[in-house]
Amino acid sequence: MSLEKDIESFVKSVDLELYDISVVRDGEDTIYRVSVLSSVMEDEKRRGVSLDECVNLTHLISPLLDVTPPVSGDYRLEVGSPGIERKISSLKQFELSIGEKVALNLKTKDKIRGKLLKVEDSKILLDVEGEEIGVDFSQISKAKTYFEW
Question: Most buried of 18, 36, 132, 144, CB within 10 angstroms?
């Protein structure tokens, strides 16, 4: 089993969803970042992830990384929510963002903003001002969720 699959198993065991794993540099520091979302839906939206849930998950993942280091050299493990406004770079991340507002930049330079309705195969379906619009995943150059105040 791969390290990512092992981490995903721990994430699911505490009723969370794995959103992303990334390695980022912050000055001299290397950060192994595990981003998670709640699997619990409230009023058609995902419940937030609590600090206690992140701490608990950190305690589960940390011993695994002691045995199977994710990067060479020193690093810091960071477990948290990807935030209310976050990039979307995979079909799985689109599926995890259903019900949220998304902004798409297409390869044609067009921009689309709307509520993410569903993902069917590689097609992303949005409600844009009351009209259902479908966009093929391969036509998207950049995507993110956004929040309107």
Answer: 36
